[in-house]
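Hi support team,

I'm filing this because I wasn't sure whether my run with FE2/S2 (inorganic) cluster finished correctly. The job status page said complete, but I'd like someone to confirm that the output block is well-formed before I use it downstream. Pasting the exact inputs I used:
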Amino acid sequence: MTQISVRVDGASYADDVEPRTLLVHYLREQLGKVGTVVGCDTSNCGACTVHLDGESVKSCTVLAVQADGSEVTTIEGIAEGGELHPMQRAFHEKHGLQCGYCTPGMIMASIDLLKNNPNPSEAEIREGIEGNLCRCTGYVNIVRAVQQAAGEMSSTAGAQA
Ligand code: FES
Ligand code: FES
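And here is everything the job wrote out:
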């Protein structure tokens, strides 16, 4: 066992983990963060996407020990004060989901996309989320949701500037 210290969704944790424990399993099984899901065993689907020190990562490709000393944000940590994150609200309003299994990872990847490119074109959105697979929607409403959130988030940022 190895001890790690990590902040997850704003709370601090110190836990013993097996050196081989994947971050996604640590989040789900030790911390109960079951909003982050596992959709494949091939590192392909992106359903497990979280932010590690602000960068989007597939948490099934990271060992828990690699997160030692880091800040992790999951889908459960992005709402503030009981208000959905603009990206969560946009997925809801634009019907950017059907079964919802891909949605936590899709939202986390999309937030990271807008951090690097606040006003992406449709092609840039599709390229930005290409590591996240959705078997249900055909992606059209997902792209619309990201466009809505981009508009909202950049106007909020402008208002705050
Ligand atoms: S569960 Fe991580 S990429 Fe599919
Ligand atoms: S909504 Fe079902 S996999 Fe995307």
